[in-house]
C-alpha cells in the first residue's frame, strides 16, 4: 500500500469520527425532549388500557393526563381557606397545558381537614412542564397554615422526569470519571486512557445522533431509563472492545518495528472476537423486538445502535488514533521492538495469572466443582427475588411530592380519587355496567362522562343517573361516541396499589358477563397490563436469547460442547447474581419489590456481556490450542487474556454502577445486578470455572470439531 494512502486512511477516519462527535454532542440537549416517561405510551397496542386511552380523547375532546391538587390543614379548612383554594384552582385552570373546561371545583373531605381538585393536563403539552408551572405558582402563593401537593399520575410523572434530570450530566460524568480512573491505574499512562475514553465518547455521540433522529421521527420510543442504559452500555462496551484491541496492539508492537504492520496484526487478531462479541450482544438485544411491551421493543434497537457504534469505533477510530500515536501512547511503559511478551512468559512466570493457571492445571476438577457449588448456593436466594411489579409512586427513590400527596389523599378521600378506573361499553348496557361496578368490592362510586354536567360527570347509582346541582336541575345526558359511553369508577385503594389492581381484575371479569366488548382502562389498568405483558415477555424472550447466543458460539468456536457449557456457566452466574441481589434488595435496601422487566433486562445484559468475556477467552484459547494443544492452549489463553478481561470487567461494572447515582428504583436495581454479575463472571466464572472445566475435559471440549481429534 502506498505511503500516502497509509497516511490518508487514518486521517479520514479521525475526521469522520470528529464530525460525528460534534454532531452527536449537539444532540445531547435534544435527547430529553424526545424522551417520554408516560407509562401508557409504553403499552402494547393490543392491551385494553391502550385502547381505552385512545378512546378517552374522543369522549373528553383531548388526550388528558389526570392531575390532582390536595390541600390539607390539621385544624380544619375554614370558609376563608376554601374560598382562597377555589380562587387558586381558577387561576391554575388558565395555565397553558391545563384542560380548563375539565377542571373541577375543590371538593371538601368529610372530616373538613382536606380538599381536592382535579386538573386534567393536556398530553400534547409536556405534562412535567405544566406540573412544574403549577408548583411554582403554588409556592409563590401559599395559603397560611395549609399544605398543598400536586399528585396523581401527572405529579408522579413530573417527579420521575425530575429524577431523570441528571441523566445527561451527573450520570455521564460519574461513568466517565470511573472509567478514566480505572484506565489510568491499568495502563499507568497519561495519553492512552484519553485515547480509549475519546473512542468511547465518539461512539456515544454517534449513537445519540442516530437515536435522537429516530425518536424525533417517531420511529422508536425513547424513555428515560432507556436513555440512561444507552449511555452506560456504549461507554462500557466501547471501552471493553478498546481494551482488547489495545492489548493486541501492544503485543504487535513488540514483534513489528513499523506501526503500520503492528496495526494490521492487531486488527487481524482482534477483529473476530470484537465482531463476535458485538454481534452476540446485538443479537440478544434485538430479541427484545419480540416483546409486546413498547418500552422493551424500544430498548432493543436503541441499545443495538449503541453497540454497533461501539464496535465500529473500536475497529476504526481507535486503530487510527493508536497508529498516529504509536509507542508514545504507552509512555512511560513503551513496548520496545523485540522485547519479551510478559503475558506470554508461560505458567512458570511470576504474577497473578500464571499463578491462577498453575492452580487450574493442578486442581482443575476441584476448582470447577467448588466454583459451581458456590454459585449454586448463591442461586438459592433467587427464589426470594420479588419481581411482580411495584406501585408507580415507588418508582422514585428519595423525596417525591406526588407520593406524599398520595398518602394525604388516602387519609381523607377514597384512595383512587383522581385516578379512576375507566370503563367503556355499549350505551344500552349503561345501567347493567354500573350495577356490576357498584357490586364489585373495592369500588367507592361510579359516574358517567357527560358534557352537560359542570364537573364533566354524572353520578350513577343502582337507581340510575342522579341530578347534579340544586333541586330541579336537569340530569343531563351521557356523552355517547359510536354507541358507547364512558364510566369512571373511583376505587377505595390508591390507583397504584395492589388492592386497586385486584379490583380492576375483578371488574374485567364481571363486566365481560355484561358484554364481551366492555373495556376497562385507566391508571390502574395500565399498571396491570404493563406487569402482565412484562411477565409474558421475560418468559418468551429469555429462552430465545439463549438459543441465539448458543448458535453464534457454535459458529464461532466450531464446536457444540464448548458453547453449551459456556452458556450453562453464564446462566448459573445469572442465577447466583439474582440470588445475591434478592438478599441485598430485600434485606439491606428494603426495596418494595421490582418491576417484572428487571430480571429480563438483567438477563439480557449479563448473558450477552458475560458471553463477551468468554468469547475473548475462548477465541484466544482456540488460537493457542491450534499451535500448542488444548490443555497448554487453555493455560496460555488464560494468562494472556487474564489482565485485559479483568480490566474490561471492572470497567463495565463501574459504568453500570454509575446508574445508581440516579434516584430511580428500576435503574438502581439494574445497576447492582449488572455490576455485581459482571464482577462475579469476571473473577469467578471466566477466571476459574470455565478454564478449569475446559482443562478437565481436555480436547473433547471442541467436540465435534477437528481440534477434538488432535493429540
Describe the structure in brief:
The protein has 711 residues and is of the alpha+beta class.
Q: How would you portray this structure in words?
A:
The chain has 711 residues and is α+β, with helices and mostly antiparallel strands. Among the domains are: 1-34 and 189-332, Multidrug efflux transporter AcrB transmembrane fold, CATH 1.20.1640.10; 60-162, Alpha-Beta Plaits, CATH 3.30.70.100; 420-521, Alpha-Beta Plaits (2-Layer Sandwich). It is built from 20 helices and 14 strands. It has helices spanning 3-34, 48-60, 79-92, 127-140, 152-163, 170-187, 192-216, 224-255, 259-286, 294-325, 352-362, 364-379, 401-412, 430-438, 498-514, 523-557, 561-588, 597-628, 630-657, 665-697; strands spanning 35-36, 64-65, 68-72, 107-108, 114-118, 121-122, 147-151, 222-223, 421-426, 443-449, 457-461, 464-465, 484-491, 519-522. The chain has a six-stranded antiparallel sheet, with helices on both faces. Strands 4-5-3-7 form a four-stranded antiparallel sheet, with helices on both faces. Helix 8 (224-255) packs parallel to helix 10 and helix 17 (561-588) runs antiparallel to helix 18. It is elongated and about 95 Å long. The chain starts with a helix and ends in a 14-residue tail after the last helix. Mean pLDDT is 85; it is low at 469-474. It holds the Pfam family MMPL. The chain crosses the membrane at residues 163-187, 194-217, 229-249, 270-291, 303-325, 366-385, 540-557, 564-586, 598-617, 638-658, 664-685.
